[in-house]
Design brief:
The complex is a heterodimer of chains A (about 575) and B (about 450). Chain A has about 575 residues and is mainly β. Chain A contains 6 helices and 41 strands.
Chain lengths: ~575, ~450
């Protein structure tokens, strides 16, 4: 077997390296994540059951490693669980069968069976360092002592430091009122939902913290889904008259919300004032600067309706330019589902391109940015569309899994309607070939990719701090999955944590340009949003490939407020914190 | 499925027997099983599937069954499964039918549709290729295969398929749509615009055409034209004659099946037949407001008073069940207008425009009704709304000019009529109206 040192890719060349087996290893239970999501599927086809859960990666205790929050559901309706429920099989070596994953009668996870309520769970990462330098994540359930009481029918999570105290706060979306938990910086949280005014009722799925007005404080965009009431909602019928979940078009979309941070522990709903007056059933949100003017824009993925590209007008308002920009619809003109979404520079031309997951029969979409916020649909030509037509994708993100300098894609899949036994689907991994095309590596990426589940949320981050990106996955009515990356750390990389001048807050929205002597400049963005209903690691990891000559000459940071700074001599293969105001 | 395992086993044993005694080197036949249909709410459909599967098993058990007949039986079972969206169950049925009746284009065609529904583009394309070999000029096969090649990122393979379909049917809007998409994929924006404009002329209802056309104009650096197209975008698909799939849609005892038969009859101008099918469809889906609106449309085509009265009832029931159903308000408005009940028509057309502000046709009809009711200022506002989105709509330009006459703004009216008479020489109404106006006539003209 060749070692990666001997068969790494040439700098700046198209991809040629074949991944070793077990690119990713599934380690949830081994690491202490003994959690299964409860969707409450009771056979009544309550619409909310088929959509959760999201997952969150964030360093809540600021000890330098990623902790985890897992969203939980409940029984809906009258709360009567099915009589013939059975516990989740806890044998560690047994992957969940398709039947178990799709079995609405499975309950379990975290020991909540039999208790009156089910809560979301917070797990602290006590990263074990081995004598050989290896790192093994070890998670401890600290929910009870944290003060996070995430009750209700959980949908997703978003993370951001709302008060600039350097401690990441947690926003939870629900089928019901949302919750905002302020991090007290001592291992505990306080529920400030009502005080902040962000406890909007309704049905929300994804949310994003972003500084849209460049005042140094994180604002909040909450994506709302459908006007749906379980008292009046009834299951729809398939072509044959089989009861099933409804398509979103059967309900009215619920207006999303933009909250402005008042810098005093409260937020103001500025949706209308900001010009945001068009709404779809929103599932995915990604905030990025799509036209390179230094101001954060917001792309909203709507289920079964046109997506929206809210371009920041730099005066507190936004304008939806999706239609003429080519990012509202695929090239054929028909609205598609659009669940998970991410923005990233997959072609290394300096701008943010869009990837989003769709329903079985539709194929994922790739909209390529020309740098001005105008997009071309390259879904089919890239290979991403045709390879995903057979799947219904949810959580997904751009991430350079092998650290070769090109952004790859992982999607978690699982259907939402049709034959119950066929709802679970396997995950997919696509490697960027560096020429506008992708190849699917799922069959060679590890045993976890052969397991079919109802994949929903996915959070991407370096959980074991070894320099490559791992993936945390939430399955609807199924166990959480932790995919640890085994290959990326074998290539060189730079890890950056970008923090503010006045505070130690993660500066989400900041863009990083890594200039190398013999290759194109690589642009990446610090972000905690994107994917589906999930929160990602805000650190920036830039893959440099195998050659040591890839030591970067310069790192340039474009901060969210507009300041631009440079650093030279940044060490490779380790994390470095760059503080605004300390560069050149 | 356990309950039907025995049936599946019998099938495979006897099929193996058939293969060994009568085989002609064809592929071995696949076991077929009935999915769990116990959850189906629609009892007629459940019973139909169970009955048909039992009949198929009987044919399989009957060793004297002619293989050709058995092939057809497998195929029709597959048709029912496909109609009921039991795609996994449909696959082996069609494979067996294809094996026993290799020259029957239906089975590879249905396999192509089945595989496409589950997202297996490779198998779908292979099946459609087989169908194409059997019937090289079948428009539906060519268009479906062309669209799959586009989905696979192979526009160079798609183009000749659409071109062949267009040769077979020069009025194929679906082929022109495909050619337009092919040209867009190659960034040939002028070609794309040309094809898509042609498609639009052939199938004006296909609002899905507007978005790709907008992208073509955007690529040509014509943002104004792009914006006009984008404002008219919609979800109505391009029409494609597909008799084989119509058979599928009509095979099940479902509301959708009868609706499909009704649409077929409508296209043939057989409105009474269509109405009959729609009544049956409504019996099976009484909560479906859209069906009632369609029944109203079918009955509106009749001149018989009782049919038109039933049409009005159907429309009013539809809007009561679904107040936001814009097409029902619209059709009711047209029916009332044709019956001279202008004020009521205006109410319905105004509701349509409130619900669907981008529906230019509805706004135009509202303007016409307002003009007829001599509410000229309001009419003018709506004609203006139409023309801002589609400045080339000749009827709206004429209506605008005639409304100016109604408002006694004769100079403006003359100027507009003169300009449009030159711009649209094929529309004599401008010149005729101008002549009358210049001759001193001040009456409003109705077309």
């Amino acid at each position: 077997m060749c070692t990666l040192a001997g068969c790494g890719p040439n700098p700046g060349s198209a991809r040629s390296e074949q991944p070793t087996p077990e690119t990713f290893s599934e380690r949830a239970r081994e690491s202490g994540l003994d959690f299964a999501h409860v969707s409450g599927m009771s056979g009544k086809f309550y619409q909310a059951e088929i959509m959760p859960p999201g997952v969150a990666l964030f360093d809540y205790d600021d000890d330098g490693d990623l902790d985890i929050y897992l969203v939980q559901g409940q029984m809906l309706g009258d709360g009567t669980p099915p009589a013939d429920r059975k516990p989740v099989d806890r044998r560690p070596d047994l992957p969940p069968s398709r039947e178990a994953s799709a079995d609405r009668r499975s309950l379990g996870g975290g020991g909540q069976v039999g208790r009156n309520t089910l809560n979301g769970r917070l797990y602290r990462n006590d990263l074990d360092m081995g004598p050989d330098g290896s790192r093994t994540p070890h998670f401890v359930d600290v929910t009870d002592q944290s003060g996070i009481k995430g009750v209700g029918y959980g949908m997703g999570a978003a993370v951001g430091d709302i008060d600039n105290d350097g401690c990441a706060d947690l926003y939870l979306t629900y089928f019901g009122p949302n919750q905002l938990f302020r991090n007290n910086c001592n291992g505990t949280f306080t529920d400030v939902s009502t005080r902040t005014g962000t406890n909007d009722d309704g049905w929300s799925v994804s949310a994003s913290f972003l500084d849209y007005d460049r005042d140094g404080w994180l604002d909040l965009f909450v994506g709302h889904y459908l006007e749906y009431d379980i008292k009046t909602g009834t299951p729809c019928l398939g072509a044959s008259g089989r009861p099933d979940y409804c398509l979103p078009k059967e309900y009215q979309p619920q207006p999303s919300r933009l909250y402005h941070n008042n810098r005093n522990g409260t937020f103001t709903n500025v949706t209308a004032a900001a010009g945001i007056r068009e709404f779809g059933p929103t599932l995915g949100i990604t905030a990025a600067d799509f036209n390179g003017d230094g101001w954060i824009d917001v792309y909203v993925a709507n289920d079964g309706k046109e997506n929206q590209l809210w371009m920041n007008q730099r005066n507190g308002t936004f304008k939806n330019t999706a239609l003429l920009s080519g990012s509202a619809l695929p090239e054929h003109g028909k609205a598609e589902a659009s669940m998970g979404v991410d923005a990233g520079d997959f072609d290394n031309d300096g701008d943010e391109d869009l990837f989003m997951t769709e329903l079985t029969g539709e194929g994922s979409n790739l909209f390529v940015n020309d740098g001005t916020g105008t997009f071309d649909d390259r879904s089919a030509q890239s290979g991403l569309g045709p390879s995903s037509v057979a799947f219904t994708g949810f959580g997904a993100a751009w991430f350079d899994f092998d650290n070769d300098g090109w952004l790859d894609v992982l999607t978690v899949n699982g259907k939402v309607e049709g034959d119950r036994a066929l709802l679970p689907q396997p995950k997919q991994l696509f490697r960027n070939l560096g020429n506008g095309r992708f190849e699917e590596l799922s069959a060679r990426a590890g045993a976890a990719f052969g397991v079919s589940e109802l994949g929903r949320g996915a959070a991407f981050g370096d959980i074991d701090n070894d320099g490559d990106l791992d993936v945390l996955i939430g399955n609807d009515n199924g166990p959480v999955r932790l995919l640890l990356n085994n290959v990326g750390s074998r290539n060189h990389w730079i890890g950056l944590r970008l923090v503010g001048a006045a505070t130690a807050r993660d500066m989400v929205g900041a863009r990083v340009a890594v200039s190398r002597g013999n290759g194109p400049t690589i642009w990446r963005r610090s972000r905690a949003d994107s994917s589906y209903a999930s929160a990602n690691d805000p650190r920036v990891t830039v893959g440099l490939g195998a050659s040591a000559e890839n030591t970067p000459a310069k790192v340039r940071v474009v901060w969210p407020g507009g300041r631009v700074e440079e650093w030279t001599g940044i060490a490779i293969d380790r994390y470095t914190t760059l503080k605004e105001g300390t560069g050149q | 499925m356990r309950a039907h395992g025995a049936s599946a086993l019998i099938a495979s044993m006897l099929i193996a027997g058939c293969a060994s005694t009568g085989g002609t080197g064809r592929a071995p036949l696949q076991p077929v099983s009935l999915p769990d249909v116990s959850q189906l709410v629609n009892a007629p459909v459940r019973e139909q599937l169970q009955r048909s599967f039992a009949a198929l098993n009987q044919e399989i058990e009957n060793r004297s069954t002619n293989p050709l007949g058995l092939g057809a039986d497998f195929g029709e079972m597959g048709v029912l499964f496909l109609a009921a969206e039991y795609f996994k169950a449909a696959e082996p049925c069609f494979l067996n039918a294809q094996s026993l009746l290799p020259n029957d284009v239906r089975w590879p065609y249905y396999l192509g549709r089945t595989y496409r529904s589950i997202g297996d583009l490779e198998k779908s394309a292979a099946a459609f290729e087989r169908a194409r070999a059997l019937r090289p000029d079948d428009e539906a096969t060519l268009v479906w295969l062309g669209n799959i090649r586009l989905d696979q990122g192979r526009p160079e393979a798609a183009a000749p398929l659409f071109e062949r379909a267009l040769t077979a049917n020069p009025r194929s809007a679906a082929s022109l749509y495909g050619l337009g998409r092919t040209a867009l994929a190659g960034r040939q924006f002028q070609r794309a615009a040309d094809y898509l404009e042609q498609a639009k002329r052939l199938d004006g209802r296909a609002s899905v055409l507007h978005y790709p056309l907008a992208m073509a104009y955007r690529g040509l650096g014509q943002p104004d034209k792009a914006e006009i197209e984008v404002l008219q975008r919609g979800e109505v698909e391009v029409g494609l004659a597909d008799p084989m799939m119509e058979h599928v849609l009509e095979s099940l005892e479902t509301s959708a099946g009868y609706e499909s038969r009704a649409m077929r009859a409508s296209r043939a101008g057989e409105w009474k037949v269509a109405a009959g099918f729609l009544r049956r469809s409504i019996e099976l889906a009484p909560e479906n407001a859209d069906l009632r609106a369609k029944l109203g449309v079918a009955l509106s085509s009749s001149s018989a008073a009782e049919d038109r009265a039933e049409a009005e009832t159907a429309f009013r029931t539809a809007v009561k069940m679904a107040p936001a159903l814009a097409p029902a308000h619209f059709q009711l408005g047209l029916l009332l207008l044709s019956g001279g009940r202008v004020q009521e028509a205006i109410d319905e057309l105004a509701a349509t425009v409130r619900l669907a502000p981008d529906d230019l046709h509805a706004r135009f009809q509202l303007a016409e009704a307002l003009r007829q009711d001599r509410r000229a200022q309001e009419a003018l506002s709506h004609y203006d709304g139409v023309l801002r989105s589609d400045p080339q709509m000749v009827e709206a330009r004429f209506g605008y000019a005639m409304t100016l006459v109604l408002l006694k703004r004769y100079a403006e009216a003359r100027a507009r009529l003169a300009e449009d008479a030159k711009r649209y020489p094929a529309s004599p109404e401008f010149a005729e109206a101008l002549a009358r106006l210049q001759g001193g006539t001040t009456r409003s003209e109705s077309r």
